[in-house]
Amino acid sequence: MDNNHYARILNEIAALSQIKGVNRFKIRAYENAARTVENLTEPIDARIEDDTVEDIKGIGKSIAEDLREIHETGTCTVHTELLSELDPGLLDLLEIQGLGPKRIKAIYEELGVCDLPSMKEAAESGEIQKLSGLGKKTEQKILAEIERLERHAGRTPLPQARRTALSIRDRLAKLDAVDRIEIAGSIRRGRETIGDIDVLVTTDDPQAVTDAFVSLTDVAEVLVSGETKTSVRLVGGIQVDLRVVDEDLFGSALHYFTGSKEHHIELRTRAKRAGLKISEYGVFKTDDDETLVASKTEEDIYAALDLPYIPPEIREGHGEIEAAEEGRLPDLIEMSDVRGDLHMHTTETDGRASILEMAQAAKELGWSYIAITDHSQAVTVANGMTPERFEAHIEAIKKANDEIDDFTILSGIEVDILKDGSLDMDHDLLAAADWVVASVHSYFNMETDKMTERLLAAIETGLICEMGHPTGRMLGGRDGYTYDMDAVLEAALEHGVAMELNGSTGRLDFNAENARRAQSRGLKLVLGSDAHSTQGLSAIEYAVQQARRGWLTADDVLNTLPVDELLKSVRPKH
DNA sequence: GCCGTTTTCGGCCCGACTGTTTTCAGTCG
Q: Residue limits of the Polymerase/histidinol phosphatase N-terminal domain (predicted)?
């Protein structure tokens, strides 16, 4: 069973327990355990079977028992009892901003409201405002929130949220009153989907900045406005929080507003033991009259806690603080480590630039090589290449090399993995090409076993360098196809196939968790832009960011190698 | 429910803002 299945049940136990009103630390224990399971690089099934599940930090006797029960039956008593006591529809109500577990419980008990439709009905008929502690305003907010949830559910994909954030940043940066402005929050950490945008500003005129912020043309509604914190909702539905801080406190504020919550909880617990207190205003001593120890930079904050700097991308409460303590923090890959890009398209199929244009643009970005990887014929909508066209394309790529200095253009292809696992191209042509990306573009809904067989067959041809966008998921769109990931990773390792971390803005596939899982098995990753235009090449930044979230170093990534070493590192039997 | 360089019991991050209240609980990040 997939780790996510276990995590989902633990999360539901936490959410339902909140509404039931149990001890909040017990709830946190379930949340922590869910997060731990989600981010485990090995199958939880294996830990249950060899009876080591209780050795995992954050999983004790009781939750271990729950996990064993889920392993055997698919669910556990704690979960089923909560579901029979309460109503599963209540989980949706937690999505309503401004309503927490206490109020939901009260409304549930007083009015029998058990899901979004009954909440809407109760609010529309004015029943909510009659309850003690609730009033007309809360009732109106609930209605507005339900309407918003009906219109626009879920989180925003990172690239889209980042564009919005940068636009807001640039507009506010023009104000005289703004000294320094920075995007913090989950965008800075590079989470693949974004709940809201956090903007941090230093100024000597907070009122002027706040006024300008709420007057931005795309602000639909002001949610909160205080001295240091203002929140708005944009026309598109996304929430933006603006925080105004003193210059001297910039480091501690940036650290605080970057999160994650879990990272902070762990860090603050650690600080407390050392007689320190952390808030957005700095690190303070708790024993005397609260002396300020650090606040100017994030480096200062970590130094005050006797820790090395922890990069934003891994501040997720996934063991990074423990690793920092023990000097085990990975030296995360950086943009400057990347030497080339191994996944892109040209006008030969569905790209918008020629071979040479792509090469020149890549050279300007600082790369020393690229692979041109146009589609094979199965992708008819992309004008995929027949064997004849591919053969000619290989020649054209070789020729283009003569027209650019100090740069290598590898001949390649993104060959389709057909329904039966065979490759959509003559094998001798694949063998003749420098770089072969193999990808699935059809029949996404195959059964898990069939899809596993399909991918294994493709890997076992021995002709593949790299598995392209390995799960096929679209960010904020379709889910990835399902297969036995462990079996596929094992085969890829055996046949010298790297897994791609595709940075194109609609995908980010592999995601960070899968990349870390592959890396922990000894597999290499490749960062690819999947560019269809010269501008598209910059998507590699997203791939780097996700790689950092997956704790990858330059050594884990093949396209940090010089081109000759790169080519030696794949297709060993070839 | 989990955990231990103050601990096997007694803790478990910290502050801002709002609405409904007359001093603060609830929610959020």
A: 340-419
